[in-house]
Write a structure and sequence with these properties.
By secondary structure, the protein is mainly β. 0% of the residues lie in helices and 52% in strands.
């Protein structure tokens, strides 16, 4: 059973940057593709970015492409989301998730973190 703990959220001004981290434990990290999702107040959860188990493949939602970068360090069991050029519409709770590596790119996420709040002020 994989446990995921996000960190790195906070308050930032428009145009600023944040780096989110998600530390995994309880499983073999390299066996999982990882993803980031977000949910803004009153909206459904939406996909942000995903990275394959070995880090070789990545994809992003159109809304963050060119601004966000997902990466992972399999020696530290951690996935990151570098967020640049932040906009107020990026304000949301950000969640990381893990899915078995057999399902790329249609990842079936089995495990979720508790989320970290990102607020972008205008």
């Amino acid at each position: 059973h994989v446990q995921l703990v996000e960190s790195g959220g906070g308050l930032v001004q428009t145009g600023g940057s944040l780096r989110l981290s998600c530390a995994a434990s309880g499983g073999i990290f390299i066996r999982y593709h990882m993803g980031w999702f977000r949910q803004a107040p009153g909206k459904e959860r939406e996909f942000v970015a995903a990275i394959s188990s070995n880090g070789a493949s990545r994809y992003y939602s159109d809304s963050v492409k060119g601004r966000f970068n997902i990466s992972r360090d399999n020696t530290k069991n951690t996935v990151y989301l570098q967020m640049n050029s932040l906009k107020p519409e990026d304000t949301a709770v950000y969640y990381c998730a893990a899915g078995p590596k057999t399902d790329w790119p249609n990842i079936q996420y089995n495990y979720w973190g508790q989320g970290t709040q990102v607020t972008v002020s205008s």
